[in-house]
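Good morning,

Both structures are done.
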Amino acid sequence: MRAASDFEFKNRFWIIGGMFGLAFLTYALDHQNAGAAVVEWLARLRGTEATSASYHAIFWFAALLCVMAAWIRTWATAYLNPEVMMGAHVQTARLVADGPYRHVRNPLYFGNILLALGFGLMASRIGFFILVIGMWVFVYRLILREEAGIAAHQGEPYQAYCASVPRLIPSLRPRVPSGGGVPNWADGILGEAFMWVMAGSVIAFAVTLNQTVYFLVLGSAFVVYGICAAIVKTRRQRSAPGAEPPS
């Protein structure tokens, strides 16, 4: 598999966003919701009718996946910082081996996979496969690009880290000693606030089974992302070499 290009890495947020959009646009071809299809398939296996409780349960499961995704990404960003997480270029200056990075080399991308699984249950059956398979392939290509850059810069220490810590599927126990890093939870929340709102949209649907409520909350996630991205951009400009200190 080929590594992602410069264009793909720089525009990864919008490419992933387009993937989500395409997954939901497939409702024009396949009107059956993926989560509802699972509920009805299980009911047929049991020889019973699908119940309202079953529909709520499958979307609570989807919400749980999204909350797990938001939590893991927040934990990771608290060690990485949002400037790096939202950056347009691969950051190779330091090796982070604390927090979730002791369990998996790419916790942010593992969070993306969980998010795709959760939101896939909100899409059509075709959309589920587009979102989950598309996300897996795209993040793997991003990983190949990032790891090549870090390996070239960090050399043997990074190779030793890679030999101990799995690439994408987390180990239940830490695979390397703590590097002594301290998480900045405010930064973690700033960088991942939009993920929490996205998870909130699925929670809202699990409670109400109302698509209007779901899309209203989901739409607000992009507003939150714009606000957080503006804050991160301002911080980056203030910390740039030669920037004037605030008066």
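Second structure follows.
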Amino acid sequence: MHPLPPKKMLIINILDILKRYSDEEHRLSQKDILEILENEYSMKADRKAIKRNLMNLIEFGNDIEYSESIRTNKKGEEETIHTDWYMVRDFSDAELRLLIDSLLFSKHIPYNQCKELIDKLKGLSNTYFDAKVKHIRNLPENMPSNKQLFLTIEILDEAISKCRQVSFTYNEYGTDKKLHPRRNDEGEIREYIINPYQIVATNGRYYLICNYDKYDNVSNYRLDRITDIKLLDSPVKPMKKLAGLEKGLNLPKHMAEHIYMLVGKSVPVMFRAQSYIAGQIIDWFGTDVRFSNDNGDTVDVHVNVNEQAMVFWALQYGEHMEILEPVGLREKVKDVAMEIVGKYEG
């Protein structure tokens, strides 16, 4: 039989009860708190002690709400009754659900780390939240993962804040479903010296916007492909020395132009699309996209986008759109499409 907890634990247990069992829809009376204390914490207390400790918790800065009402006691005197106590939460259940779903649908966080993060998020709510997130048990275990991901993020955050370079190994998956480091012409593992500028998330993956120190252009590397990262003492190359970043990184513009996070130049593109995919166009290219000649059935679309990314996008949405300009890009998409047709003929 466990010894009864000391009285000094009373305030801690009351706080724990509020965290586990209360919210705006589930409020507790002092009687409720007394019963939970006795049944689950083997602790007895009187109502005055409960109220005193609740007020102390509020005085200590805990966001606790309650209701007040006036009643007449047996002596005919008016007294104030405090009830309906509950803890105000930093995150609503809807916000926690959104955060948890973003982890469930991520394509790069290792299973065990993802499960651990979800458990921590669930801990920010109460016992009633579990019933709302039963789908969590569907967390997939068969996604490829890089256990160094969180360490990579931590070191990159430090490097970006301190304006320092990093070195790392960049990997690719083989048919054995394992990561393999990229190698140079001599067969040695390549060391990448990188100037990091920004971490971004897109298409369910994390990317590093950076510069490979040997060149003067912008590169994008997937964080889940990075291993053996090291923080270097050398300072980063100033952005103004890079083609396209002479005036600094305009993140919304960069993301709109690099919808698949491919490297290479961005070009002005005009294409004609069926009007019913306007929503998908805005999803991919952002609200800076310009529409013209809308006749109700089709609309001309003007975007600035990475050239190779536009080829991929045109193949994905080819049934619903047609590139008009530039002519060279139009011909490139045509050639790729013909090559695909050739593979399926005969």
